[in-house]
Specification:
By secondary structure, the chain is of the alpha+beta class. The chain has 24 helices and 26 strands. Bound molecules: ligand C2E and magnesium ion (2 copies).
Length: 672
């Protein structure tokens, strides 16, 4: 909608010029800049006759009048009568941004009393709380639009006096721009096209303070439809903006540390990727995960945990360059973004610097202090085509690698590991379903007495039936089961199934022993021992028929739980066999710290028997120590008669391997 001002006429006192008045603009040197169409008509001149020429030559009376005037700053617009073409003419002179403006007024000046309609409109404009500004529609660029009217609300908003604004350009409200530059161009576009528009921008008051206004800009048309003036209604929305901004900031800020949160991080990475698009170099996303933060929370409370997070935010921030971003994802996860990296090594350097700065002691109270530490995963890209989520996912994955590795606690994203892990996700899913839905299978491999070849017992070896029906070997899913905790239900299933089969054998008069494998993580939580003994009792199995196979790592740095579980089992008569002996630390001193019943020499030693002299000597030594300490020796992986004979001669008690049998399902092969 557009208003047509020609239907309203206003007092000349409050309106610098009315639509029917002409306008002449003169620069500071007295050269005519512009004569508008009304002035041209009133003076009967062509623009060519006036524009760019000296006013002194064209209209000496007026030039003299302007020259004489000294009260510009105090009085504002002044009305006078000058002679033009032999007749008196009313003019109004005032200051403009470029020099002087001269209103060529319609009719001679005479004291005027406003009609009731006029005063009503004016009173309305004076009463509204929004600032109202009316400007000329011409001279967009130079010398700029001229302010013809402002209401009291405008003066209150800006702090200017009426004299200081009439005749000037609205540009005097323009300070150092801090709104979106696109707003200014939208404004220009609307002005050029003569379209009504609404926008929000920043105004600068006389004293320099800036405030946000919502501007409604309406063109006023003359009878021919040409835009003659603009009315701009300006509402101060600073307060709303401030609350909006505060809310927006809150929504983007982590309340504990004040750092950008997950949301903000997303857009920061996005922006960085866009910048990457425009220039050379690489950017890195560093995923930082604190180690053992949960312990601090659990032991000292969330209050202390929060304080630690604040401290950590501070330390990390300090170790970064000002232009880098640091955000908190939540929990004990922080993410840093570093741009303009020359090479991969820069990102690693940065990660190491962060870790170092983080690691200074932090006092919880007078007695306790801790050294925070973290693992850092790095994802680097030189291409902007990668998505934010993908970049974060890569960094996250690298972080897990960093946690698992024993090195510096820093890892760079590696595609091949990624592919492996992706595969393992499907394995995890299968495993989960298998434990619940009968997709697990046990095979039994005989353990043979080397002295007479009789079967001592069986080792239960678990397999996962894949969706294609093929059996997946334990090496492909036990590690997944361990990290996901699925190893506990898996282990229980194995025990239950193995016991059930053992019972069948025993009932058939076969006095076999049964070995089940137990991984370290199964012994790190309490419960395995009790479960096993309960099942034994329930199914009529004597615990002395059962052996659990553990690797040396179980005995090294074992937590108390592991020790308790193993003791419980041993006291009940369950044997403990040390599996894969020779591949780990193989320190015989472990054997004195925790008594075992047998060691199983790893198949890599068996394979080199008689070939590798050193390994042969080591096996001989193992067997000798075992005899001294009175535990049994089982050799794994016997594939040839030759290997069997060597072992027998050296005094090895039992053997296991393809020479005797591969692992087989119950009731097949030699188990039938
Ligand atoms: P392990 O306990 O050392 O089991 C012996 C492995 O050697 C088995 O592999 C077996 O198939 C293989 N093997 C047996 N004889 C020979 C031979 O003559 N030559 C060669 N080259 N290999 C032979 P499998 O079944 O793939 O099991 C791998 C590992 O998975 C086992 O090593 C054990 O540590 C683990 N595992 C198996 N079942 C379970 C289970 O129920 N729970 C847990 N936690 N781990 C299990
Ligand atoms: Mg084993
Ligand atoms: Mg083994």
């Amino acid at each position: 909608m557009t208003l047509t001002i020609s239907t309203v006429s206003l007092r000349p006192e409050s309106f610098l010029l009315l639509p029917q008045d002409g306008l002449l603009l003169v620069d500071a040197q007295g050269v005519v800049l512009h004569v508008n169409s009304i002035a041209r008509r009133r003076l009967s001149v062509t623009p060519q006759a006036f524009n760019g020429r000296s006013l002194g030559e064209l209209w000496p009376e007026l030039a003299e009048l302007i020259e004489r005037r000294t009260d510009w700053d105090t009085t504002g617009p002044r009305d006078e009568t000058v002679v033009w073409a032999g007749a008196p003419l009313s003019v109004r002179t005032f200051r403009t941004d470029s020099g002087v403006g001269v209103g060529v007024l319609a009719g001679l000046l005479e004291p005027e009393t406003p009609g009731p309609r006029q005063s009503l409109v004016e009173n309305v404009l004076e009463a509204v709380s929004d600032a109202v500004v009316v400007t000329t529609a011409e001279y967009l660029d130079f010398p700029g639009p001229v302010i013809l009217y402002v209401n009291s609300a405008f003066l209150a908003q800006t702090g200017y006096a009426l004299n200081e604004v009439l005749g000037r350009s609205p540009r005097l409200l323009q300070g150092p721009m801090d709104e979106d530059p696109s707003t200014r161009s939208r404004l220009r576009g609307a002005l050029q096209k003569g379209e009504r528009t609404s926008l929000e921008l920043v105004n600068t008051a006389k004293d320099g303070t800036q405030y946000w206004v919502e501007i409604d800009l309406v063109p006023l048309l003359d009878g021919t439809g040409a835009v003659t003036q603009w009315v701009s209604v300006q509402r101060n929305i600073s307060e709303r903006r401030t609350t909006q901004q505060a809310l927006a900031e809150q929504a983007l800020q982590d309340p504990v540390t004040g750092l950008p949160n997950r949301f903000a991080l997303h857009s920061r990475i996005d922006q960085a990727l866009q910048r990457l698009n425009r220039r050379e170099g690489q950017m890195a996303v560093l995923f930082c995960d604190l180690n053992r933060f949960k312990e601090v929370n659990d032991m000292h409370g969330h209050h202390v945990g929060d304080q630690l997070l604040v401290e950590i935010a501070f330390r990390l921030r300090e170790a970064l360059r000002p232009e880098d971003t640091l955000a908190r994802l939540g929990g004990d996860e922080f993410v840093a973004i570093a741009e303009n990296l020359v090479e991969e090594a820069d990102a690693v350097q940065l990660a190491l610097r962060l870790k170092e700065r983080l690691g200074a002691p932090w006092a919880i109270d007078d007695q306790t202090s801790i050294r925070p530490s973290m693992s850092v995963g790095i994802a680097i890209t030189a291409e902007a085509s990668v998505t934010v989520d993908e970049l974060l996912r890569r960094a996250d994955m690298a972080m897990y690698q960093a946690k698992e590795s024993t090195g510096a606690g820093v890892a760079i994203y590696d595609r091949s590991v990624d592919d492996q892990l992706k595969m393992s996700i499907s394995v995890r899913r299968q495993l989960h379903q298998a434990i619940e839905g009968g997709g697990l299978v046990l095979e039994y491999q005989p353990i043979v007495e080397l002295s007479d070849g009789s079967i001592h017992g069986a080792e239960a070896l678990v397999r996962l039936r894949g969706s294609d029906g093929l059996l997946i070997p334990p090496s492909d899913f036990i590690p997944q089961a361990e990290v996901t905790g699925l190893v506990v239900p898996l282990g229980e299933w194995v025990i239950h199934q193995a016991f059930s089969d053992l019972k069948t054998w025993r009932d058939r008069g076969r006095p076999y022993a049964m070995s089940v494998n137990v991984s370290p993580s199964q012994l790190r939580v309490p419960g395995l021992g009790r479960y096993l003994l309960e099942q034994a009792e329930l199914m009529g199995i004597d615990p002395r028929w059962v052996a659990i196979e553990v690797t040396e790592t179980v005995l090294i740095n074992h937590p108390k739980v592991t020790y308790d579980e193993l003791s419980l089992l041993r006291e009940a008569g369950v044997k403990v066999h040390l599996d894969d002996f020779g591949t780990g630390y193989s320190s015989l001193s472990w054997l004195t710290q925790f008594p075992v019943d047998a060691i199983k020499i790893d198949k890599t030693f068996t394979a080199d028997l008689g070939i590798d002299e050193r390994k042969t000597a080591i096996i001989r030594a193992f067997i000798q120590v075992a005899q001294e300490l009175e535990f049994a020796v089982v050799a794994e992986g016997i594939e040839t008669e030759l290997q069997k004979d060597w072992l027998k001669r050296m005094g090895c008690d039992r053997g296991q391997g393809y020479l005797f049998s591969t692992p087989l399902r119950m009731d097949t092969g030699l188990w039938a």
